[in-house]
Write a structure and sequence with these properties.
There is one protein chain. The chain is mainly β and 479 residues long. The chain is built from two helices and 38 strands. The chain has helices at 2-27, 460-463; strands spanning 29-31, 45-50, 57-59, 61-70, 73-87, 90-96, 104-107, 116-118, 121-126, 130-136, 144-149, 163-166, 169-179, 185-188, 192-199, 204-209, 213-214, 222-225, 228-233, 236-237, 242-243, 246-251, 254-256, 265-268, 271-282, 287-290, 300-312, 318-321, 331-345, 356-360, 365-376, 385-389, 402-413, 421-424, 432-442, 445-447, 466-468, 472-478. The strands form four sheets. It has a 15-stranded mixed sheet that branches. Strands 13, 15, 17, 18, 21, 24, 26, 28, 30, 32, 34 and 37 form a twelve-stranded parallel sheet that branches. Strands 1, 4, 5, 7, 10 and 11 form a six-stranded mixed sheet that branches. A hairpin with a 6-residue loop joins strand 2 and strand 3. 45% of the residues are buried.
Amino acid sequence: MKKILIILALCIFTLGMGAKDKMAAAKNRLVVAKAPTGIELKHDFEVKARIAGGAWQDIDTYAFKVDRVADAKHNVEVTSVAKLEFEGKVEIQVKSLAQNIKSYKIRPNSYGIEAAQEGNTLTFSLDRPRYLSVEINGNIYQNLQIFADNVLAKPKVKKKKDLMYFGPGVHDFKGDSIHIASGKTVFIDNGAIIKGWLSTYGSRDVKIIGHGIVMPGHHEGIMVRYSKNVYIDGPLTTQLPIGGSDSVTVKNAKVMSWYGWGDGFNIFASNNIHQEHLFARTSDDCSTIYCTRKNYHGGCKNITIKDCVYWADVAHPIMIGLHSETPENEEISNVLYDNIDILEHVENQIDYQGCIGINDGDNILVKGVTFQNFRIDNIRKGMLLNMRVCFNKKYCSAPGRGIEDITLRNIAYNGNQPNMGIIAGYNESRKVKNIRFENFSINGKVISDDMKEKPKWYKTADMANIYLNDHVENVTFSK
């Protein structure tokens, strides 16, 4: 009788485990869309994906332009982009066709993704949406961007006329604007490419959803203008600025640009903005917060930007301030950047260097800004910080009013010595003050006011290679 009970228990346990395994397998899902006919592909890599135990599926690699500045001009390079959607866990296989693999990186490094290498093939797995750069032999221009997203279903709307659906294929608007009216929901399906740009000019209660591509050429791909209650989730485009707007959420969006002044995610004169899980590889600043500019008027407040990957082929990963109109006396306040990976920063002009840049002009006051949980990779040319109240006569008609109450928490840089950072006020009435560094580390060494290596007569900023001028007060470094 005892043996029968044991066997029965084992059978029940085995059946239970089998059910759990089946449930786990059911949660795994992979969605791959073919590139539309006639769209340029690149064949430096062969990319496949599968769910555990499933068959490998081929993934097309799109040809995307990026910027390499050399000889004082913009030079176009062509990189690869692969896209997929999944739930649960997915395995990805990348075979290098253009070159033999002597070394490789899968960045951001903070993700800790390890690949199994067999010849020229790398295999790794993901258990959550990730935006990655796969780099072979240090080549960052002919690399592979992988945009592994969550699965998005076609949204339900109350009225059929309220849905603008772009299915797989090319939708050619000859680079023209497509206006999104109030109450509309746009769904850009995976495998769809829009040759035009989307504008929410003067609209309310708008949604733009889907993992398709908006590719207008030398132009912003999606523009949120003078709008309220806008929700964007998923697209890949060139630039995605927000201007003169309120209550805007942007999630899971990707931008890539190659032309001059190709900023990524601009915020102009807008309030209550939330950006989350973004990727920007740009030919100018990746993320900016400005006041009055381009016919958008006012300051900026209540901005949250989190879980982002920034790659600035030119200029700043982050730039705050600079633009307004004198004498508006506008403010940028209550801003949070959290959980940010900065992969690249390259800029020849000293005025425009800085992974974290606050260049304050045009009578703006910047206050109450927090940068926390940053991982910054090796800087090829530039500074960690460029925080100045300045008078840039090319763009401004006056210096800024000041920079104050700035927190930099858990900022980690790993790489070669960058150019000297700058924290500078303009004069005694236009200062930088109350700057708090908490757990600020360079190559694993925490810079603090009580660090043993610092001579008593040094400023702590000297240990971080940051210059403080005479119009800066109350800068602290703590562990």
